[in-house]
């Protein structure tokens, strides 16, 4: 058990709640201006959707379409590998989301400014004094990588339409973090903080304040 805990602490160091955001593990991801170089209006915004092994193709296609409906980005589907063994937290049968972000940064195609990982397995992160807290998603804020899981989305417990909507909302939420959006106090904004509750059914779109931040980066249209 000591070895497991030591490995977990190491993984967490390399890098609420049902939906989380996390600062990148290194200072290389975001200078104070949020971007190392300014984004021009003509810049193409490409996102890689990395499907960890075992992810249903239909779910990935649904999320791909949902992202492109709300954001001015092109989403490239990627067939991925199994979840990395080094990220596995055996005591809770979960994968450490912080470690998955590190892994995903290494998988991001050069042509894509962001990468979002998709899995059906349970994922977790540290929350305050709680060493291993189950989450739906985690994203660098701002940064290049985020990861989402369908494990806590209510598959089989709610209608298919509600589950699908939750997954799209989750993807837009975590991608919002990568574009520098923090949690939002607006109860109907996609960036609302879950605060330990399942509230993926509340947000319909980004609020005006959050949308304006995305608009400045050219990833939404008026």
Fold and architecture overview:
This protein is of the alpha/beta class and 222 residues long. It has one domain: Collagenase (Catalytic Domain). The protein is 30% helix and 19% strand. The protein has helices spanning 2-14, 57-70, 97-107, 160-178, 208-216, and strands spanning 46-51, 74-79, 88-89, 94-96, 114-119, 123-127, 130-135, 137-139, 145-149. The strands form two sheets. Strands 2-1-5-9-8 form a five-stranded mixed beta sheet, sandwiched between helices. A four-stranded mixed beta sheet has the order 3-4-6-7. The chain is globular, with a radius of gyration of 16 Å. The protein starts with a helix and ends in a 6-residue tail after the last helix.
The string of secondary-structure elements, in order, is: HEHEEEHEEEEEHH
List low-pLDDT spans: 1-18, 23-28, 30-42
What is the multimeric organization of the chains shown? single chain
- Helix count, per DSSP? 5
From the spread of the alpha carbons, the general shape counts as globular
Offer a concise description of the structure.
With 222 residues, the chain is α/β, with parallel strands linked by helices. The chain has helices spanning 2-14, 57-70, 97-107, 160-178, 208-216, and strands at residues 46-51, 74-79, 88-89, 94-96, 114-119, 123-127, 130-135, 137-139, 145-149. It has a single domain, classed as Collagenase (Catalytic Domain) (3-Layer(aba) Sandwich).
């Amino acid at each position: 058990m000591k070895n497991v805990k030591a490995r977990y602490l190491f993984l967490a160091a390399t890098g609420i709640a049902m939906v989380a955001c996390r600062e990148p593990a290194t200072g290389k991801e975001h200078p104070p201006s949020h971007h190392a170089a300014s984004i021009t209006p003509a810049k193409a915004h490409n996102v890689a959707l990395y499907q960890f092994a075992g992810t249903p193709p239909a779910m990935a296609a649904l999320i791909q379409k949902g992202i492109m409906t709300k954001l001015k980005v092109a989403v490239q589907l990627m067939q991925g590998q199994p979840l990395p063994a080094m990220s596995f937290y055996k005591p809770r049968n979960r994968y450490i989301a912080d470690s998955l972000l590190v892994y995903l940064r290494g998988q991001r195609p050069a042509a894509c400014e962001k990468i979002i990982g998709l899995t059906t397995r349970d994922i977790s992160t540290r929350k305050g004094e709680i060493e291993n807290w189950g989450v739906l998603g985690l994203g660098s804020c701002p940064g290049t990588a985020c990861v989402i899981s369908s494990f806590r989305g209510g598959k089989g417990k709610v209608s298919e339409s509600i589950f699908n909507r939750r997954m799209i909302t989750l993807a837009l939420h975590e991608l919002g973090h990568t574009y520098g959006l923090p949690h939002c106090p607006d109860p109907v904004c996609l960036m609302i903080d879950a605060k330990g509750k399942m509230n993926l059914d509340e947000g319909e779109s980004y609020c005006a304040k959050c949308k304006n931040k995305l608009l400045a980066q050219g990833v939404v249209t008026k």
